[in-house]
Amino acid sequence: MVQEAVAAAAASDITLKRNIKKVSNSQSGIPIYHFNYKDEKYGKGRFEGAMAQDLLKLKPDAVIKGDHLMVDYSKIDVNFRRVK
């Protein structure tokens, strides 16, 4: 059950990420990035996903606000995944 929650929403605040590289756009125009988390408690390795700050302008209903911004990936056409 916890794994599903992680897949649906992920810490996507730009302030939590480093080594950020834009790799493409989704069909709806959302920028897609590869990045590492500054703090590995959010995940170890390289990931692909969206930036919450982009979505505040493009799809604000997909952003979850808290201590850090998160993205509800079930509301956008971008997948959050680990990459090599």
Structural account:
This protein has 84 residues and is of the alpha+beta class. It has one domain (2-83). Helix content is 17%, strand content 37%. The protein contains 2 helices and 7 strands, in the order αββββαβββ. It has helices spanning 2-8, 52-58; strands at 9-11, 17-25, 31-37, 46-49, 63-64, 70-72, 81-83. The strands form 2 sheets. It has a 4-stranded antiparallel sheet with strand order 2-3-4-7, with no helix packed on it. Strands 1-6-5 form a 3-stranded antiparallel sheet. It starts with a helix and ends with a strand. Mean pLDDT is 90; it is low at 1-7.
Count of strand segments: 7
Termini separation (Å)?
A: 26 Å
Largest sheet: 4 strands, antiparallel
Query: How many H/I helical runs?
Result: 2
- Which structural class fits the helix and strand makeup? alpha+beta
Low-confidence stretches: 1-7
Task: Please give the order of strands in the largest beta sheet.
Answer: 2-3-4-7
The average pLDDT is: 90
- Strand and helix order: HEEEEHEEE
Label the overall shape. globular
Strand content: 35-45%
* Amount of helix: 10-25%
Please indicate the count of domains.
1
Backbone CA Rg: 12 Å
